[in-house]
Amino acid sequence: MTIRRAEPRDIPQIDVLLHQVLDVHHAGRPDLFKPHATKYTDDQLAGIIADDRTPVFVAVEPGAGSIADPAREDAEGADRLLGYAFCQFQRHVDDNILTDILTLYIDDLCVDEAQRGRHVGNALYRHVLGFARNSGCYNVTLNVWACNEAAKGFYEHCGLKPQKIGMETIL
Fold first, then answer.
1. In this structure, are residues 71 and 79 in contact, taking their beta carbons and an 8 Å threshold?
2. CA-CA distance, 67 to 108, in Å (whole number)?
3. Residues 120, 127: contact at Cβ < 8 Å?
4. What is the pLDDT of residues 68-119, one digit of tens each?
5. How far is CA 70 from CA 42, 51, 67, 76, 156, in A?
6. How many CB atoms within 10 Å of residue 84?
7. pLDDT value at position 157?
8. Which pLDDT tens digit goes with each residue over 47-66?
9. What percentage of residues in the chain have a pLDDT greater than 90?
10. Do the beta carbons of residue 58 and residue 74 sit within 8 Å?
């Protein structure tokens, strides 16, 4: 397994994993998440991947073949995407109450359903931590939906602690 920055050629496989994440969220909160929707268009993904303020890391098995469409001839020899981590740099410059620290926010972390249990998520998370340290970040943050028990358990296992808790009342 190799972890590298995402490239435009990864977009079809990233789309597959984005749908897996949406399925988990829709199953847990169908009142909030639409079924069969797409978080980003391919053009939006290309912009995110190209922007150094929003680094995307992918864990790949080099030459193992695409998960997007394994029947395609060009899938053979392609990197197989095992998971991804979408990140965003955040900073509160001249804020009235918040200190001016650099944070790397993990917007989305997903491991292909077929690859879970192989420590792909742990490797991605550790890579993001190293990248954040090397980038001068003070901390790494993320949000996790309360209905996603598997993700909460994974993040706790990685050593993350709650920073804040979002609450709601449905009317």
1. no
2. 19
3. no
4. 665 554 556 688 999 999 999 999 999 999 999 999 999 999 999 999 999 9
5. 19, 29, 6, 7, 34
6. 26
7. 92
8. 999 999 999 999 999 887 77
9. 82
10. no
* Six-digit token string for 45: 């993904």
What is the β-pairing status of strands 56-61 and 102-111?
Answer: unpaired
Beta carbons within 8 Å of 144's beta carbon, 6+ residues apart: 151, 152, 155
How wide is the angle at C-alpha 83 spanned by C-alphas 10 and 147, nearest 5°? 125
Q: How far apart are CA 127 and CA 104, in angstroms?
A: 12
How many angstroms separate the CA atoms of 80 and 58, rounded? Answer: 10
In the predicted model, what is the mean pLDDT of residues 135-162?
A: 93
Q: Which two tokens stand for residue 165?
A: 């808790």
Residue that the structure tokens 């993040």 belong to: 155
Residue 71: how many other CB atoms lie within 10 Å: 7
* Structure-token match 């979002």, residue found: 166
Contact, 170 vs 31, CB < 8 A? yes
List the Cα angle 103/145/2 in 5-degree steps: 60
CA distances 159 to 39, 65, 117, 125, 138, Å, are: 28, 33, 18, 11, 16
